[in-house]
Amino acid sequence: MNKHVGIGFRKDFGTEFIEGSALKPAFVEVAPENWIDVGGFWKKQFRKVAEQYPVYTHGLSLSIGSPDPLDWEFLKKVKSFLSEWDVKVYSEHLSYSKCDNAHLYDLLPIPFREDAVKHIAERIRQVQDFLGRKLVIEIVSYYTPVAAEMSEVEFINAILQEADCELLFDINNIYVNGFNHGYSPTEFIDQLDLSKVKYIHMAGHDQVSEDLIIDTHGQPIIDPVFDLFEYAISKLPHPVPVLLERDFNIPELAELQEEMNRLESICRNTWQHEHALKA
Amino acid sequence: MSTHLKPETYEQQSRLAAYCRNGEQPALDGITPNRIGHYRRLVFNVVKDALTRSYPLAVNLLEEEEWAILCNDFFEFHPCQDPQVWKMPEELISFVQQERAHLCEKYPHLLELLRFEWKEVEYYMMPDRDWPIASKTNEWQDAWSLNPESEVLSLEYPVHLKNARQISEEDHGSYYCLVFRHEQTGKVHFMNLSPFFAWLIATMLETPVSPKSLLPVIEAQFGISDEPMLREQISKFHQKLVSDRMIR
Hints:
By secondary structure, chain A is an alpha/beta fold. Helix content of chain A is 42%, strand content 18%. In chain B, helix 1 (7-22) packs across helix 2 (37-54), helix 1 (7-22) packs antiparallel against helix 4 (64-77) and helix 2 (37-54) packs across helix 4 (64-77). Chain B is built from ten helices and three strands; from the N terminus they run H-H-H-H-H-H-H-E-E-E-H-H-H. Chain B is elongated. The chains are: A alpha/beta, B mainly alpha.
């Protein structure tokens, strides 16, 4: 059993995971949107999972960066879901997926601007007040900036400060963004407000051209991202849960467990060392 | 809109979102032009995949180009309302009905096929419903404990019986089909029904009553007064429903 590392629970391998013993995560993560209002076979399966593992969530449709109003009816359902399943973490993307009253079902990049910071921070505070918990926002991967007036790291730090929310530290996304936009991921990490980190995501990606990586979650984690992970967690003030995301091109579960084991091993080595230093 | 967000920032966000829906090159500041197309591709793939997974029979009925154009038009002209992507495909039905008359003329059973396919998704996924308290099992004198996750569909085309490509105007008529979710497996079942049994199940789903208590109505509506024959037929039907887990 892993102590720190969880797995994104996917229907693609749900039954094999529940009935088998190939995967031994510390927790599971789901998108509430995929499970709200669901009954029948999949509710039974989800119940089995939730009885066995702590449940973390990673939302898709809050659209915290949208110009549109927050969807309070949707948020009521999210709140009910978080309560029903005793969810430990509710995380979401620092992006927008709805605009002009139309859902887009994917993550669009927000203009890195001061007015957007204030707009989003206000919305995060409203969501936090309503849910009675901190929102954990994720640094998303993006393929082009749009109308940026400040740097990405300034934008993220400003939101963390103004919204008083927590950070989902997606190491793969930082690697992808560094590659796509020509900056150093380690320097980016050094500039982030790491005191806000609540949770980490790790995943693989696809390089589609010489200068572009798409964040697909469809491949194993590559070694440079493992290295960046090791660097990143050595900077954290305390241990946090780590998630392995694999959404497409799913391999044998034993292969996922091997990736989780490697992450777990890095966590143990790094954080045991940190504790030893403190002692 | 928030008082914080400047109109020019909103405009940039709106243009990117519009581009994802219509594919027309947007006027956006500070972008990497050869990368913006990935957003349109990624967003549209999510929508088209969700539609294609929900309506495999309609995909098979329409020409490949018709389906591609329908998906494209739906996403461009219809503002998707549901935050849950798996529920979004239901919105295609009203879009086709209201905005794509030429498809409904070419394929008169298309709308019914879409509704029929959506029933399978809806019933497979929908929240659990409580069963009525089971009564004694005298199928003649007692109300039946019917599966609450069920419904009788009234159809004008036999979309539940025939390959959609084989259905023609000659098939136009009255058909009835029981849709229900199997209590144990969670799978969705469809059962062709005669008009009489469709009426009987629909009536009993609405109000728990015994077949015996419906005798006067049955005689008035269906002209059936042979009680022994009726009891025998209802008993056989009841057994079938029990074996299919439509009745506890």
